[in-house]
Design a protein that fits this description.
339 residues; Rossmann fold; binds nicotinamide-adenine-dinucleotide
């Protein structure tokens, strides 16, 4: 056990019981001081940061310029994201304040890719409906008709770590896999994936799966114009970030049956909803309520990453990143360093 790290305190935000379990377990090999807050980190909560060198945040924490200024005055030196995406952190402001930012670039791409497959197969074969039906002794098949995924054309936008794992799964199911990315992946091309301009991919895909990051170029990539290019009845799957999809455009597409199925693990306004038990609350977000009212829409609450293997890897890599940054060493995982 390393005995020199107990002077370093890490303050965790947006924590759930499983975060504490996995980080406490991984920390046996590091011996940092861990402090867990359930609240999101944002302008409303930044003042709870006290006498800490490191804050550890997740997907819906809001690391705005205002928050970064306060963190800098409180002596925070490292912001450690325990996720891959970093669209919620003002990177330039961190750089200006000399705060290091790290992430976990690829903890388990398979976890997310396999969840995308789960969304596809549930929407297609309606196992969620069959489960409820059979429990009520309704053994009828009416309304449960699916389609063979075999031989269908799958369009993959973004073939990085997760997109790569997803392409391999879909090739294994006998699909034709078309991809769009800024850089073609030679390994995938050798396996039979073909790269195409975005428009061509949108026009040909039976199933479209999003695996690119959220940034200025990709925000509302799925919009009125791009939906109009798609095949009627297309299945859209988003396990990446909610704002890749213009929710209003998708609702119109679903009402017109231009979109045949929608499976989302992420949602543009998810920060007010996801990871919370709101079962006794009145939901004020009419868009998510409208989405959930469609029989051909499946929403999961940002759980694609949520496997044992992924949580173990997230905890281990996050603490390793912090250890290396604290010792001013280069990170073992180069892509983990953002500033
Ligand atoms: P990655 O960086 O390995 O891959 C992203 C790919 O997208 C790269 O190949 C990149 O070239 C490509 N890309 C970038 N801009 C593009 C554009 N404008 N058009 C098309 N392609 C573009 O990232 P990853 O690990 O595969 O993760 C992808 C996304 O998945 C993350 O950004 C994150 O938002 C999301 N994610 C979600 C969950 C979840 O639980 N739902 C978990 C992990 C990651």
């Amino acid at each position: 056990m390393n005995t020199t790290n107990d002077s370093i305190k890490i303050s965790f935000f947006s924590t759930k019981p499983y975060d504490k379990d996995f980080f406490n377990d991984a920390n046996k090999a590091f011996n940092f001081q861990l402090e867990f807050f359930e609240t999101h980190l944002g302008p409303h909560s930044v003042n709870v940061v006290n006498n800490t060198q490191v804050v550890c945040v997740f997907v819906n924490d809001k690391i705005t310029t205002e928050v970064i200024e306060v963190l800098a005055t409180k002596g925070v030196k490292i912001i450690a994201l325990r996720c891959a995406g970093f669209n919620n952190v003002e990177i330039a402001a961190c750089k200006e304040k000399g705060i290091k930012v790290c992430r976990v670039p690829a903890y388990s791409p398979e976890a997310v890719a396999e969840h995308a497959l789960a969304l596809i197969m549930t929407l297609n074969r309606k196992t969620n409906k069959a489960y409820n039906r059979v429990r009520e002794q309704n053994f009828s098949l009416n309304g449960l008709l699916g389609f063979n995924v075999h031989n269908k054309t799958v369009g993959v936008i973004g073939t990085g770590n997760i997109g790569h794992a997803f392409c391999k799964i879909m090739l294994g199911l006998g699909c034709k896999v078309m991809a769009f990315d800024l850089i073609a992946n030679k390994d995938l091309e050798a396996m039979g994936v073909t790269y195409h301009p975005l428009v061509e991919l949108l026009q040909n895909a039976d199933i479209l799966s999003l695996h690119c990051p959220l940034n200025e170029q990709t925000k509302h990539l799925i919009n009125v114009t791009t939906i109009a290019l798609m095949k009627k009845g297309v299945m859209i799957i988003n396990t990446s970030r909610g704002a890749l999809i213009d929710t209003h455009a998708v609702i119109v597409g679903l009402k017109k049956a231009q979109i045949g199925y929608l499976g989302i693990d992420v949602y543009e306004q998810e920060d007010k909803l996801f990871f919370k038990d709101l079962s006794s609350d009145i939901i004020q977000d009419d868009d998510i309520q409208r989405l959930m009212s469609f029989p051909n829409v499946l929403v999961t609450a940002h759980q694609a990453f949520f496997t044992k293997e992924a949580l173990e890897e997230i905890a281990h890599v996050t603490l390793t990143n912090i250890l290396e940054l604290s010792a001013a060493k280069p990170l073992s995982i180069k892509a983990a360093l953002l500033v």
